[in-house]
Amino acid sequence: MVKPERGDLDGPQFRALADIMRKYTGGRARATQEQNLVLRFIHESSLHAVWEALDSIGLAEPDSRSITNVVSCPGTDSCKLGITSSMGLAKALRDEMDEWSGDLMDDQGVKDIRIKMSGCPNGCGLHHIANIGFHGAALKGPDGQQVPAYELFLGGNYGDNRVEDSRVGTRIPRVKVPAKAAPSVLKTIVSYYKDNRADKTEKFNQFLDRVGLEQLTEVAIAAEESAKEAAPGSDMYVDWERTNIYKLERGEGECAV
């Protein structure tokens, strides 16, 4: 399983990956909804050589089925329906996880959490079926200036093998998390789960079903309040991977005719 960061490949990586596929997989690969690529039919004797080749182009990261495999739509990077830079947030969440302690990142329950995000409510990033999902929104700071933000969804699932195990997450109502606060909110949610679950076998969604969303709603509310107190022109008004003050602008989407 090849796990490109944010599902993104640059030109040199694409060409090198094509060479690897031609040599070891009959020139074929399969894309997944998690924005990974599956390389099939590799002979066992070639596995190490394939890993070395992938490692040389920065595509040998393990744990394709873990919390670090954050899924995002393009958001405002290319879609005119986008409200926020969902790809920018995806990178910010990955960077945040890189700073987490081993106790958190080595925990299997934490690893099993799935995170997805969309730059708008249309849901191309499938945020609504993630354990933790975000979709782009905007809120107003104290001076009326728009702040890039996200609505938060918790408890979704896409049922690894059974359709009946899939469910849509619950939206935290009437609360928007500022984009720049989302990484810290994520860590608070994950830490709260790890510290308060019944035991190590209790999955994230099982935990939510047992304890409810009240405490985590308070976390989101506190994040929203931070935007209302932000000084005009502060970093809170700038979206991820942007340098200009945020302004909501929407047009036709990528697939509009």
How does this structure look, described?
The protein is of the alpha+beta class and 257 residues long. It has two domains: 52 residues, no CATH class; 167 residues, 2-Layer Sandwich (Sulfite Reductase Hemoprotein, domain 1). It is built from eight helices and ten strands. Strands 3, 4, 5, 6, 9 and 10 form a six-stranded mixed β-sheet that branches. Strands 1-2 form a two-stranded antiparallel sheet. A hairpin with a 5-residue loop joins strand 5 and strand 6. Helix 3 packs across helix 6 and helix 6 runs antiparallel to helix 8. The longest helix has 15 residues. It is globular, with a radius of gyration of 19 Å. The model has no long low-confidence stretch (mean pLDDT 91).
pLDDT < 50 runs, ≥5 residues: none
Q: How would the global form be characterised?
A: globular
**What is the N-to-C succession of helices and strands?**
HEEHEHHHEEEEEEEHHH
What is the arithmetic mean of pLDDT? 91
CATH class of the largest domain: Alpha Beta
Instruction: Work out the radius of gyration.
Output: 19 Å
The end-to-end span amounts to 35 Å
GO molecular function, one term: heme binding
Enzyme class: oxidoreductase
Protein name: Ferredoxin--nitrite reductase, chloroplastic
InterPro entries: NIR_SIR_4Fe-4S, NiRdtase/SiRdtase_haem-b_fer, Nit/Sulf_reduc_fer-like_dom_sf, NO2/SO3_Rdtase_4Fe4S_dom, NO2/SO3_Rdtase_4Fe4S_sf, NO2/SO3_Rdtase_FeS/sirohaem_BS
